[in-house]
Design goal:
Blueprint lengths: L5 H7 L5 E3 L2 E5 L5 E13 L2 E10 L9 H17 L3 E5 L7 H15 L5 E10 L2 E10 L5 H16 L4
Parallel strand pairs: 4-5
Antiparallel strand pairs: 1-2, 2-3, 3-4, 5-7, 6-7
Helix pairs in contact: 1-2
Length: 165
């Protein structure tokens, strides 16, 4: 089970958060609602549990760029790693064909945020049943199993990209 300090998140989040079950909920200045959660996956990498970061925009409306959304999500991710040494998986939604854009956006957020040498990010891309699958894992470099996690991910990503089960 993962742990969080809601107080630490709120110190860095420009939007007020409500914790509802396992979901962090917030509303933007434009009235758009987001839900951020971590879903435990069956994937064990290098002996560590893997949690998928799930970012849901509740309303299906277009919105302009809001840097406060980025800062809020990154505050949640930062606390995930401060309180847990597990693996975070980011897998892009493929429902509307914008998965590659989401992937680039998320990685650009993380690149701006990341402290030197704090994380290892492993990326993979594959075509599965005609859809582009974009995913990455992020591992805190304090994790003593980091090398085994990276090796395990690379093996699984190779099988995925070669189209093997």
């Amino acid at each position: 089970m993962i742990r969080f300090s809601i107080n630490r998140i709120l110190e860095h989040s420009p939007y007020e958060l409500i914790l509802s079950g396992n979901d962090f909920m917030f509303q933007t200045d434009l009235g758009i609602h987001y839900s951020i959660s971590f879903s435990k996956e069956d994937i064990i990498l290098g002996g560590c549990s893997t949690y998928q970061l799930v970012i849901r925009k509740i309303e299906d409306t277009k919105s302009r760029h809001d840097p406060k959304v980025e800062a809020t999500i990154l505050a949640i991710i930062d606390e995930f790693f401060r309180s847990n040494l597990e693996v975070m998986l980011y897998l892009c939604d493929t429902s509307d064909g914008r998965e590659q854009s989401r992937y680039r956006l998320f990685l650009s957020w993380f690149d701006r945020y990341v402290e030197n040498e704090r994380f290892t990010i492993c990326k993979a891309h594959a075509e599965v049943e005609g859809e582009g699958l974009f995913l990455c894992i992020i591992v805190d470099n304090r994790n003593p199993k980091r090398d085994a996690i990276v090796e395990d991910f690379e093996e699984k990503a190779t099988l995925l990209t070669e189209g093997k089960p």
